[in-house]
């Protein structure tokens, strides 16, 4: 019997944010918002397993956010959050955990102490939630006017994860099916279950609006005070072919570029710049040119690998700058597409990507149109060493 399973609710659409993606999948310092919650729960020693309740239409987004984490298979949610939680609880029937934690996937800054306090309270009560006491005076209003001033001493801001003994909260959710209750504690209250309040955390806020996402970015930046810069340089000679790959974009040309992979000189230089900033060697160390599996491989795979190493280190990419050095082909007509492609690969805003081009005024091998060179600089933010 599993002692504790965490259920992460991530089936919503997050329409209030007005973003092109559901808020739980929006990039936050290079990783999905949801990823932070999953890592925090999966790493907690008292949690035996983690399951996400998601929208199957977001399967590709979920797979990317959960990549590399040992999680239970996700289950489909319902039309409303309460439906999603009930379905998630139902899916745990075979595991029959003693306790369950129910967490919002859009709360990325969950700390171990909050989880510890919720679990400790479950030793004495069937339910427990983290909460914060109100600091501001609270007014009840109607039609734009104050109706009364409420006693804030008895008012709390509820957070997640909300913890419960499994069997009682499952029964409570089944009984409340079809209701529109604001959180799982309200479901427990309706069923007569006692719910304890434990100390929450100001950092454990929910990303709901665009302002919340900006605040979350600021939290990440404050934690990543180790600024690193790396540089990369690469050269490929012209050879047979009628097109070249440059910064992830296919460009028609009278020659191709010679290389073991697709010979994308721009992405190779940028990959080396990121690896250099990490102190993680060079592209040849990670993708040996003598290894046949990389023959003809798209260079975006190399760049994504480097970005994944940054994320694994708890860091983010602040800015990248690539300079292509060649007489031909002309880069200007393709510059915007190159910026967009690099931004897509690295999950960056295009304003954090620069692509430039220059010539050597007819001098050297690039001046003689024998090949193309590229140099790149990458700026990373990494957590400060403890």
Give descriptors for this structure:
386 residues, alpha/beta, Spore Coat Polysaccharide Biosynthesis Protein SpsA, Chain A, 60s Ribosomal Protein L30, Chain: A, 2 domains, eight-stranded mixed sheet, five-stranded mixed sheet, 19 strands, 30% helix, elongated
Structure notes:
- The protein is of the alpha/beta class and 386 residues long.
- It folds into two domains: 219 residues, Spore Coat Polysaccharide Biosynthesis Protein SpsA, Chain A (Alpha-Beta Complex), CATH 3.90.550; 158 residues, 2-C-methyl-D-erythritol 2,4-cyclodiphosphate synthase (60s Ribosomal Protein L30, Chain: A, 2-Layer Sandwich), CATH 3.30.1330.
- It has twelve helices and 19 strands.
- A hairpin with a 2-residue loop joins strand 2 and strand 3.
- The two termini are 37 Å apart.
Q: Uncertain runs with pLDDT below 50, 5 residues or more?
A: none
Averaging pLDDT over every residue, what do you get?
Answer: 93
Number of helices: 12
Number of separate strands: 19
Architecture (CATH level 2) name of the largest domain: Alpha-Beta Complex
Distance between the termini: 37 Å
Biggest sheet, in brief? 8 strands, mixed
Portion in beta strands: 25-35%
CATH class of the largest domain reads Alpha Beta
Shape, please?
elongated
Radius of gyration over alpha carbons?
A: 26 Å
Count of structural domains: 2
Helix content: 25-40%
Q: Would you tell me which CATH topology of the largest domain applies?
A: Spore Coat Polysaccharide Biosynthesis Protein SpsA, Chain A
CATH homologous superfamily label of the largest domain: Spore Coat Polysaccharide Biosynthesis Protein SpsA, Chain A
Helix/strand structural class:
alpha/beta
